C-alpha cells in the first residue's frame, strides 16, 4: 500500500476571473499541480474546484448541464475554454502583438518568437517568413534609435538578431548608472570612505599669476574632492607668493608637502577615470575605450563593399582604416570610439553631465583643470599639465564640431 501526503487546497488562493490571462493560466497550473500531488479523485477535484470559484464563476457552473457539472473531464474542459484560453486566435494574437513599456527588446523578441511558433509560422526554415518576422519585430520596437540601427542590418538567422540584442543590452548596462546599494543603519555597518587624509584641519592654495586670483581647498574630510575652489580673502592676504607657486595654509605642526599635493590631485583624477593610462596592446588590437562592434557572421551591412577588408588601426573586419570609429569623438558625450548618431551614453542623473565617477569628484577635477589653465599647480609634472590642457582643447574642439 502506498500512502500519499495530505495536500491542503488552502495554500492556493481563490480563482479571480478578472485577473489577466497569464495570471489565470498560472492559477490553473497550480491547481492541477495540487491535484497530482494529493492524488485526488475526480469527485474530489470537482469539489475543490467548486470551493475555489467566486460567485460569478459559480453562477456560470450552475447553469451548466448536470453531467457537465459532475464529470471532471467535461467540467475542466469547459472551465479552460471559458476562463483560461485566450479568446483571440493565435495568428491574430501574433499580428497584433506589441512591445510592453517596461519590456526589453530581447524579451519582446522571445515573446514574439513564441507567438510565431503557436501561429504555425515557419520563420526558422523559410527565408521569406523569417524576413517578414524580423521586419515585424523591428517595426513594433518602441526604441527609435535601436529601430534605425537594426533597419540598416541584414540578419541571416533569428539567432543573429538575438546576438545583436544581447550585445546592445550589455553596452547599456555598462553605460548605465550603478545600482544603488541599500544602507544598513546599524552602528557597525556604516559605509565609510576608504580614503582617510593623513593630516586633518589643513588647506592649501594653488595660485597662478597675480591677476588670476586664488582658490582655497578644504581638506578636512576628503581634500580636493569635498570643497574645491572656495574663495577666502583672509587667506589671500597671508598666503600670496610672487612667483605663482603653490603655497600652503597650515595649522600649527601640519604642512602640505609637494608629494601630498600631487597625491591629492592624482587621487581625484583616478576617481574620475582620467587620464587613461596606456596599456600593452597587441598590434592591431582595439584601443582602450574604443567602441566595441558586435562581431558575428550575420552582423554585416546589406551593402557593405568593405565586408572582407581588415582595418589597419583596430584589426577588425568589415571596414577600412579611414572609416574606423577608433579615432572618432562623439559630439554628445565627447568620448572616443563611436559617432554622435549612435551614441547611447546616458548622462548623470544628478547633474545631467557626461562624466565618470561621482559628481563631487568630477567637480573637483574641473577645479583642477581651472587652476591649471590659470597657471596654478606648478608642482605637477609637466606631462600631466600638458595632458590636461590638451584634453581641454580636444573637448572644446569636439563641442564646436
Structural notes for this entry:
The chain contains 14 helices and six strands. The strands form two sheets. The protein has a four-stranded antiparallel sheet with strand order 4-3-2-5, with helices on both faces. A two-stranded antiparallel ribbon has the order 1-6. Among the domains are: 9-84; 90-174. A hairpin with an 8-residue loop joins strand 3 and strand 4 (227-230). The protein is mainly α. Helix 12 packs across helix 13.
What is the straight-line distance between the termini?
Answer: 85 Å
Order of helices and strands: HHHHHHHHHEHEEEHEHEHH
Low-confidence stretches: 183-254, 276-299, 397-401
Tally of individual helices: 14
Rounded to the nearest angstrom, the radius of gyration is 33 Å
Q: Tell me about the biggest sheet?
A: 4 strands, antiparallel
Percentage of residues in strands: 5-15%
Tags for this model:
metal-binding; zinc; two-stranded antiparallel sheet; about 5% strand; zinc-finger; zinc ion binding; four-stranded antiparallel sheet; about 400 residues; CCHC-type domain-containing protein; mainly alpha; single chain
